[in-house]
Fold this sequence. Notes:
Elements: H1 2-15, E1 27-29, H2 32-38, E2 45-47, H3 64-70, H4 72-91, H5 98-112, E3 117-122, H6 130-142, E4 160-163, H7 166-179, E5 184-193, H8 200-219, E6 236-243, H9 246-267, H10 275-288, H11 297-306
Parallel strand pairs: 1-2, 3-4, 3-5, 5-6
Helix pairs in contact: 3-4, 4-9, 5-9, 6-9, 7-8
Amino acid sequence: MTLANLDGALAWLEQAGVADPYGRVIAVTAAPEAAVALGVDETRVLPFGDGVGGRYSLWSAVGVTAALALGWDAFEELLEGAAEMDRHFRYAEPLANAPLLAAFADQLYVQRFGARSRAVFPYAERLRLLLPYLQQLEMESLGKSVTSGGQPVTWETGTVTWGGVGTDAQHAVFQLLHQGNLAIAAEFLLVRDPDDAADPEAHRQLNLNAIAQAAALMAGQASDDPQRHYPGNRPSITILLDRLDARGLGALLAFYEHRTFANAVLLGINPFDQFGVELGKDIARRLSDDAHADLDSSTRALLDRAGS
């Protein structure tokens, strides 16, 4: 897909009348020699280590797109916020170490209480893309069935990460959290001080809704009417950001990275490989090359139906 996207971008530039499309290309890659072989000038190749997985690459040369979009000052603040969380994770004692405590809670919910999914709810519209980021970070890192030494694991690994944004999610999925009989751990993200020109009272009401939901999950409410009985004792975590600025966002993203790493250490698995993803890519390449002979009949039939 990367090469197909490159071809599409070059064609778009040519159609727009750009005489030297490659002169507009910056390559960010773990294989700089391959970029040069494709025609990218070596002065416009930004390399990064081949051991850096995509979900961990924001802090590498891959972050150039964010730097270009946000400006260097904002990107530096993002990096410094992440560095502050790095230092906290490295030096804080275990009982005061936020990513480690969160990982302990994650494992308690999964291994002890059987909560195999975690629902994340940012009560800030600007964090609406956090969920797909977390889905890749957590499920690609922790979805393993062997230890880092290659032995089969005999315990649960990873959880299904899902959720939604603020009060929209309340009216969509919270019924399941409050009265369903599935074990689900919830996570709320709040911002204390709004800095996006929002109505302060509307922001206060938004936070009150989140806090109320967490309280209701914990305490529940008894009723003689079984349909209005809320059992309570439903686990949740609340993360409160002082401000949602570049520095705070950097610290938040680094918190989730370190939390994922700590979970992997507790589980004895490698959070940095992604071989399960590679299998699908390999089959896609074979399909693209018309290497269909060794495919199962179901896949061949689907290819025929799809006109592929």
